[in-house]
Structure formats: C-alpha cells, structure tokens
Amino acid sequence: MTDAPLLSVRDVTVRFGGLVAVDAVSFDLHAGEICALIGPNGAGKTTLFNAVAGNVVADGGNIRFRGEEIAGLTPHEISARGARRTFQNGGLFPELTALENVLVGLHAQVASSFLGLLLGRRSAVAEASATARARELLSTMGIASIAERKTGALSGGQQRMVEIVRALATNPPLLLLDEPAVGLAPAARQRLADVIRDLAHRRGIGILLIEHAIELVMSVADRVIVLNDGRKVADAPPEQVRADRAVLEAYLGHA
Amino acid sequence: MKGRRAFWLLPLALLPVPLLLNPYQQYVLNTALLYVPVGIGFNLVVGNLGLLAFSNVAYFGLGAYTSGVLMVQIGLPWWLTVIPAALMGGAGGAIASIPALRGVRLFYLAIMTLAFGELMRWTYIRWESLTGGSMGMAVPTATLFGWALDTDRRRFYVFLALVVLIVAITDRLLRSRFGRAFLAIKDNEIAAAAMGIPTDRYIVLAFAWGGAVVGVGGAMLAISVGHLTPVSFDLTELIRQFAIIMVGGLASLAGAIVGAVIITAAPQVFISFPGFDELVFGLLIVLVILFLPRGLASLLARLHPAFVERYYRD
Amino acid sequence: MLALLPQLVVSGTSTGMLYALIALSMTVAYRATTVVNFGHGDMVAAGAYAVFVFGLGFGLPFLIAMTLAIALLFTAGFAAQRLLLQPIVAGPHLSLAMMALAIGYTVRGALRLEWGNETINPLRPYPQDAYLFGNIVVTTDDVVIGGCVLLLLAALFLLFQVTPLGKVIQATFQSQRGAALVGINVPLFHALMWGGGAALGAIGGVMLSLITPLTPDLGQWTLIQGFAAMTLGGFGSLGGAVAGGILLGITEKLLGFYINTVFIEITGYLVPILVLMLRPQGLFGRRAVLRV
C-alpha cells in the first residue's frame, strides 16, 4: 500500500491530570485495511480511539484524516467528514426504532432547513428518500424485519448490526468500532467477523477496531497495534504479533 | 397517518362554539387555548429534548410583559407585539440553554433554571417603572388592524388562529430530522453527536423555539386577563404548566393540547379556594406518574391509531 | 462602614446556620437516593406549621410540640419515599423530580387551603433580648438558633463518624450496590433517609417559625436558599452543606449592606446560577456533568 493513508496518527499524547493515558502514539491506516487496537485494560486503547473520534481532545500530536487535520474538531464535525464510530455498550437510541436510528445516522443528508419548515415548505421529499435509503441499508444487512422495532428491545447481536448500519449510512470511508463483539454469542461473532471483512476488503472502508476477543482480532485484522501503558509496543500483522515477546510481556506483566 | 387530516377539522368544529358559551365559559376556553402554546413549548424542551429546564414561566412572563409594556409605553397595537413577545420568549429560552451547553444536566440544570425563573419574577416586581411592580400593570384593549378585541369571543378567534399556526409549525418541526434529532439527543447525546448532529445548536434551537412559542402564549395572556402581575409567573404557575405536560403526556403535541384543556378546566369544576389549584395539580401529577406515566395522550393513542404521533414514545 | 463588618458577619452566621440546617437536611436525602427533593422546602414549611398547630392549636408546651412536629415530618418523609418514590425509582429522572415537586405542591396547597394567604406571626416561646459584646449586638434568636444548630451538628457528627449506624450510613452513601451485597435493605435505607431529611428539615422549620412570619409560600423561598447553600458547598457533601449555608448567610448580609439591599433578596437566586456556570461541580464538589 503506497497510497496516502486514510488516517494518519502522529505522536498523539493524551493526559488526564498527571496520568499519561496515551503517550506519543503514531500509526497509519489505509483504505480497505482492518487495524485492531489491543492491549490490557488501562493501556489507552479507548482514549486513543476517543481522540480520533473527537470525544477526547489530544494534548499533543496530529491526527490527519484524508489529509486534513482533525485533532481539536468536535465529534459531529469529525463524523461529518466521514469518520464514524460505534460505542462499546449501547450507542443506540433505545427509544427509537431501528429505522429511526438509521435515519438519525443519515441526519446530515436529509436536506431540510428550520427556516424552510417555518415557511411551510414540506421536507416530505427529503424525508421519504432518506427513509427509503434507511430501509435499503437495513435489508442489505439482512435486518429489514426489525425496522419498526425499538432498538432497546432488540437482542445484543441485532443491536450491534443496527449500530453498524447506522454508522455506515453515510458511506463513510473510515469506521471506528469500539469492542463490537462484546456480549455476542459465537454465531453472532462469526457473522460480525464476516461483515467486518466484507466492509473492508470488498467496499474498501478503513476499519479501526478495539477488541478484547483475541480470536476475532486474529481472524479479521490485517494489522494489530498493541498498546501498553499508553505506548505502542507492537504494530504488525497478527501472526507476527502473536509471536512477539513485548506483547506477551504487556499481557503477562514483566517476565 | 391518513386519519391525521381529520385533525384540521377540529379547529373548524370550534368555530361555532362561542355561540353556545356564556362570557365566563368563553374566558375559560380562551385560557385553555393560550395554555396550548405554553404546554407545547415546555414539552419540546422537557419531553422531546429531555432536559430538566424549569424556566418555562420565565418565557411566559417575558412574552406577557413584552406585549404589555410595548402596548402601554409605546402604544403599539397588540398584534404588533406578538412577534416581539415571541422574540423575547425565544431569547429567554436561549439564555436558559446556556448552562445546558456548558454541560450542566439533570437536577443541576433544574435548579439553575428554577433560579432563573425566580430571578425574572423578582425583576418584574422590582422594575416598577416598566411593569408596575407587585401591583401590576393594566393592559389596554387589544386591536387587530383597527378591530377592537374587546370581548372574549373576539379574542377567541385570534387565539384560535395563533394556536393553529403554532401547532402546525411545531408539528412539522417535530416530524422532520430536527424532531428526530431532539429525541436522539434525549436518548444518547454522545451517540447523537457521533452521528453528525451538532447537539449544541439543536439544544439552543429547541430552547429558543420552545421559548418563542411560550412567549406568544404570554402575549395572549396579557390581553386575556388585561392586568399583569408578577404572581402570575411564580412557582405555583410553574406547577400548573408542569401539570399540563405531565397529565397530557410528555413529548406529545396532542398531550400539550389535552393537558392545557384539562388543567384549565379542572379547577373550574370546584368552587375555587386559595390553595386548591396547587393541591389538585400536585395530586394529579402524583397520580399520573404512578398510574399513567405517558399521560392522557397515551390513552388517545390506544383509542385510535390516528392519535399515534411519530414523535410520541411510550 | 468597616466597623460594622463584625456585626454583619455575626448576624450573617446566625441566618447562615439556618440555611446550613436546611441544606444539610436536603443533602441527607440526596446523598441516600441521588434524587434532589424539589418538594423539600414545603416539608420545611409543613414542619413550621406543625409546631404552630401543636403549640398554639393544641396548647402543648413548645418542646413537646416541636418533638411531635419532627416525628410527624419524619413519618411523612418516610411514607412519601416508600409509597410514592420507591415505585418509580427505576424511572427517568424527570419523573422523580416531578414526583418530589408534586408532593411539595400538594403539601403547600393543603397549607394554603387551611390558612389561606394569611400570615402567622412568629412563635415567641422565649423573651426577646439583645446582648452587647463589645459593639456587636447578639439577639436571643441568634443564640437559640446558633446554639441549637451547633448542638445538632455535633450530634450528627458523632452519629456519622463514631456510631456503628453512622458507619453503615456512610458506607451506603458510598456504594449502594456494595451495601446491598452485605445485606443492607437499601429501599428501607432510602425511606429512612428521606424521613431523616424531612425530620431535619422540620427542625429547620421550627427554627424558622421562631423568627419569621409563616405563609404557605415559605417553602418556595426555603427551597431556593437550600439549593444555593448546597451548590456553594458542593452538591452532596454534608460538611459542604454546612459551610455553604454559613457562607450564604454571610454573603447575603455583606452584599446587602455594602452594595445594595436587593442582594438580600436575590443572592439565593444568583448563587446557584453563578456557581454552576463557573464550576458546574459546585465550589467543593465533584464533577457531575456530561461526559463520555
């Protein structure tokens, strides 16, 4: 991969008071690539992830997305530029139906203005086309049947799928998945792995993934970045990482 | 959804009603009408957006006094004061949203906004040159393009037109991506931002539109009672407005309408003693929370599918 | 001007003691249940009216009337939590806030229905005197209220810090789930703390009945002053509530004297607004705002 990276993280540092949660971490992510962030609890994975998504402001370093600096932008600005995230446990709107969740995902693409509403121009056309698109997205993931159900009442696997569909609604080039497999049964995990692979390798979406389920990481990731104490200790294909001594130490303590 | 067209028949059906009412009944009906926008604005922020803002009486007072003061001090006809009243109410809403933008939520927000409302009431008491202080100010007879709105029956038609306009616009707002964004913010604000919704802007929008609508209700109050006193905007008034949205149904336009009618009518059934309103409203809210948490609107929705609102949640 | 400063501080502290007591009573219920009781001001007012009814209506001696008023309010607080709040405890915050508010309004409505909008003059169970210390005037009210609140605070301090019951309460404040795991009946604890909060509030009401005329709207003012003291002290801190109350009392007097008398009326409104705008976590409190 010689083309310019989709996401380029350079020397990103995040401090919480005296604690250095992420310490000068750098990595690149290309289109169509699946990159997993792993590491023990407290290693800084979530903080780094939040820094990319804009939920945490980095104290130092650069984050470039499609060549544009996004460090310091708000989450909605980053989302609007095409980097969309999911959440660790339940990022859905539980009181809204699956369809409405996806429609919220399409928010920026529904053309209707407040003034237009005041002046009486109906946004019906925009609404109708967005609804059609949302239904289509749900059916391509095979979950059209749950469109009218409130997501709070769905199973864990269904919720995860709705969340991914919602994130994908705007065709984002970058998808940030925060522990998508947590709480899923083995069959649902398998299906999730297939979906992730398909998104990256067939549709060319760059995927940054935090995951604790190590077998899922090993089976889907093209590259694995290992963090320990806020530092990057490994960045290599999964089979190499598996054999890496530094990784073992990170997980097992100082051998 | 088709059945919703029938709702436009409701205001038409109300047109001949004044012929059947005596002046007092007409006054009560007018009061119910003016509380419709008050309930709608309150419900937008508390029900749809899900933020505990207790400053609705502040926008109500801002609208009422703006209308009254412009009529008395500058001699504007009432109809020219409606837009300024809406603007002042909306500005009050935007100001009340500032703590929410700073991340203040839940009870903290409730306390701040409660204090804001009380501060406004204190301002009406103290700014005597403008408001007449605690003795209040007399509001002159309203005119509409030279036509004197000097009876409750005449005011009724103007109020009805305003209420229909406000309901129609707010209905559109709530059925658009804006209304969906409000509900998304209520459910999960961080996820809403991750979906590209500028949450701060939407919070200000909901507060400002809510405040503007309530401000129009205030302008209606000014000419309906003809005499404005700060007591009309105290914490007892706040419980009346809470009762409207809780009894009617949260996050529901129909709820605000039903609530306004019931809460205005309820105290009329009994001979009114001081304290009776508070007692009845308090008990009604307690009972509704315990036994009908989604208010009377949820009963309507069960009765007929046309009453199911897309932004209505149960 | 400056010569009056000690006098202002003394009278401010006296009023502040009362605020401290009210804020403390609100904090007890809040710490236990994490629900702010928007009806608490009316509980305080109900306490004031109760002592008036027992004392003047039934002609009971003041101390007995006071004991009965406190017991009555404890029962009322306990019952309100048990019967009305516990059933919806898992519901949205709005319902909990509204329930508390609605209970308060029901109480206020009942008070107004009985007494209308007439004001009831303060009970005077002891002679009104003033003593001069140097050039500082101290009234019997200052002594009685200050003394009672100090005694109460000392008793509460001992209760919380020394007795086994206090340790249990502190532990349950820290972690409800942990308390449930070691066998503490958490719903009962919540009800007891609401009862306790209401009883403490009733003591505040009794103190108020000594110095101010009673009207049904007393609760409105009480609630705002209590909130102001709580925000000053950092929400949920028992010591902070006391410090915040005293600070509020002194601030009111100083601003009222040195800047403009209107501050005596509006400091209570301004304090929660300003404090929460500048430091959303309260002056000494932990952050309790939105975060990822």
Shape call of chain C = globular
Biggest beta-sheet profile of chain C? 2 strands, antiparallel
Structural class of chain B: mainly alpha
> How many E strands of chain C?
2
Cα distance spanning the termini of chain C = 51 Å
Q: How many extended strands of chain B?
A: 4
Q: Overall pLDDT of chain C, averaged? A: 88
SSE run of chain B: HHHHHHHEEEHHHHEHHHH
Indicate the percent of residues in helices of chain B. over 70%
Mean pLDDT of chain B: 91
> What strand order characterises the main sheet of chain C?
1-2
Shape of chain B: globular
The helix tally of chain C amounts to: 11
Question: What are the defining features of this structure?
Answer:
heterotrimer; A: 255 residues; alpha/beta; 6-stranded mixed beta sheet; 4-stranded antiparallel beta sheet; 10 helices; 10 strands; C: 292 residues; mainly alpha; two-stranded antiparallel ribbon; disordered C terminus
Question: Could you walk me through the main structural features you see in this protein, from its secondary elements to its overall organization?
Answer:
The complex is a heterotrimer of chains A (255), B (314) and C (292). With 255 residues, chain A is α/β, with parallel strands linked by helices. Chain A contains 10 helices and 10 strands. In chain A, the strands form 2 sheets. A 6-stranded mixed sheet of chain A has the order 6-7-8-3-9-10, with helices on both faces. A 4-stranded antiparallel sheet of chain A has the order 2-1-4-5, with helices on one face. The longest helix of chain A has 17 residues, at 124-140. Chain A starts with 6 loop residues before the first strand and ends with a helix. Chain B has 314 residues and is mostly helical. Chain B has 15 helices and 4 strands. In chain B, helix 9 packs across helix 11 (199-225). The longest helix of chain B is centred in the last third of the chain and has 27 residues, at 199-225. The radius of gyration of chain B is 19 Å and the shape is globular. The mean pLDDT of chain B is 91. In chain C, 73% of the residues lie in helices and 3% in strands. Chain C has a two-stranded antiparallel sheet. At the B-C interface, helix 6, helix 12 and helix 14 of B face helix 4, helix 9 and helix 11 of C.
